Amino acid sequence: MFRTGKETNGSNRGRQIMAALELNPNFAIEDEQSLRALFEPTHSLATLKCQNTLGAHAREFIRRSPFLCIGSQHLDGKADVSPRGDPPGFVKVLDERTIAIPDRPGNNRLDTLANIVANPNVGLLFLIPGFDETLRINGSAALARDPQLLKDMAVAGRAPKLAIIVTVSEIFLHCAKAFRRSRLWSADHFQNRSEMPSLINMILDETTGAPTDRDEMRTMDEGLEEDYRRTMY
């Protein structure tokens, strides 16, 4: 299916020689008609379930959810997806078509926020631990600094600098197949985090190079944990 292209070799530590792969055009799907010809028509319920307002079950799902992913895209086509998490109920339902997501402290790359300023279209995926089903929302986003709204989103006395306001255009519940295939919530399928290096170690491996001294690396890891404690809100 793939053709092997030119080999590339990164100069930074930890990178391996990898062959660049090119899609064989004989097997490429290049239009929607060709795509849909591969599949059976969707059943009517999959179409009917799509709503444009927040019903009682959607509101309850959002109230219970401590985690979501938000997908956004810049005008230049650059796409991004970002995780957002807080105690359950952190996303506020403002009315039947509007929700508000607090923006907590991060690394200040501002990928999602900059994308929203350029292109308001977003997609959200809400998760609840232990639930195999998810809630999907597509809509239009804006950034707001309304003091009263932000005050109601404060945690430990610290309000966010801004909130992401999403106007719902499409909302629906998504089936359990992906989570059941992955066994995401099954404790006997959890992986051992210690089998991979720490976050800072991996980033340094791919950039400037990680220290070989274990004590130095341990100090850096402890510094990250301390930063988490100081800047969570």
Automatic annotation (TrEMBL):
Question: What is the originating organism of this protein?
Answer: Rhizobium lusitanum
Gene3D superfamilies assigned: Electron Transport, Fmn-binding Protein, Chain A (2.30.110.10)
The Pyridoxamine 5'-phosphate oxidase N-terminal domain extends over 56-175
Which PANTHER family did the record assign?
FAD-BINDING, PUTATIVE (AFU_ORTHOLOGUE AFUA_6G07600)-RELATED
Q: Which residues form a coiled coil?
A: none
- Which InterPro entries does this entry report, sorted A to Z? Pyridox_Oxase_FMN-dep (IPR024029), Pyridox_Oxase_N (IPR011576), Split_barrel_FMN-bd (IPR012349)
Question: What's the protein here called?
Answer: Pyridoxamine 5'-phosphate oxidase N-terminal domain-containing protein
